């Protein structure tokens, strides 16, 4: 359960998450402290417009071989291996977002969601950061 003593740990976590994700454009917030295409670009060290194109192609259910062969101009000429890596990273981002949404709902139902905790959860950029937050709130 979340109590006053547990809340004392949250500023440390907030600063840890902020430091980890400080490379992100915090002015461009959607539901979370990051955008999927921006986070993917940082993870793969690629241009943001390329990451946006990759996400669109994957969401449109294009296969990796198709993208590598016929959509090279949209991916910066990425080979199939790099595209597979991008797909895995994007799947991790989707998992992160879903897990964070589930955490927010669960903690909110318990009546323990504070603005600071919500901010901490939405700024988490990795599953490891999210797991760290969960471990301190239990």
Automatic annotation (TrEMBL):
Domain Tex-like protein N-terminal: 36-107
Domain of life: Eukaryota
GO molecular function (one): structural constituent of ribosome
An annotated GO BP: translation
Protein name from the UniProt record: Tex-like protein N-terminal domain-containing protein
